[in-house]
Design brief:
127 residues; mainly beta; 8 strands; elongated
Length: 127
């Protein structure tokens, strides 16, 4: 087993369908997702920016970039985490999201933290 990385950010995601904001008959499906960012490395780091790749069931791909998350650029110390909830709108009842965060370690090094792909789906759509 290898040693833990000096820069090690773990990202986990949970998603849910938001029926009260969705209009399925108009191909408007709203999803909320909660992201947990944990610093399992040895150096504190700040989340500078995000890059999302959002794909719907029709194969339509949309990329979203921007500073921080939900208006913040959180500092995450080793052993600590940060959690936030945001949303996405698709034209289909199923899709995926994946991406990365650009991080700045307190020692001046920048690095990417991968956001593993997760599914956006209305309940009982995927078995």
């Amino acid at each position: 087993m290898s040693e833990p990385s000096h820069y090690r950010i773990i990202v986990e995601a949970r998603s849910q369908y938001v029926p009260e904001q969705s209009k399925p008959n108009e191909s408007h499906f709203v999803f909320a997702y909660t992201i947990t960012v944990r610093n399992e490395g040895e150096v504190a780091a700040q989340l500078l920016s995000r890059h999302w790749v959002i794909t719907d069931a029709n194969g339509q791909v949309r990329e979203v970039t921007g500073d921080g998350v939900v208006g913040e650029q959180p500092h995450v110390k080793p052993g600590e985490g940060f959690q936030y909830t945001s949303g996405a709108v698709l034209e289909t009842s199923v899709g995926t999201m994946r991406g990365s965060y650009r991080m700045l370690a307190e020692d001046g090094q920048t690095f990417e933290a991968e956001i593993p792909e997760f599914t956006l789906s209305i309940p009982r759509t995927i078995h």
